[in-house]
Design brief:
Alpha-Beta Plaits; two-stranded antiparallel ribbon; 4 strands
């Protein structure tokens, strides 16, 4: 499993960080614009459900879970 985010479309809302703080973190880049950073691009199997929840809850639908 691999986590991919389209940073061009990310609104930095932080919903993914709320769902899976082990995988995602909101980063404030310029004071006016925030985006999400993937902490674990390949999270362990134990975090699969959290990764899927973040994917489902993303307001902009920019998170994709790719199965290897």
């Amino acid at each position: 499993m691999r986590v991919v985010i389209d940073l061009d479309l990310c609104g930095g809302y932080g919903t993914c960080e709320s769902e899976a703080p082990e995988i995602f973190r909101v980063v404030d880049v310029s004071g006016d614009y925030a985006h999400v950073e993937v902490l674990l691009e390949r999270p362990p199997e134990a975090l699969r459900e959290k990764a899927r929840a973040a994917e489902r809850q993303c307001p902009n639908r920019v998170i994709t879970i790719v199965e290897d």
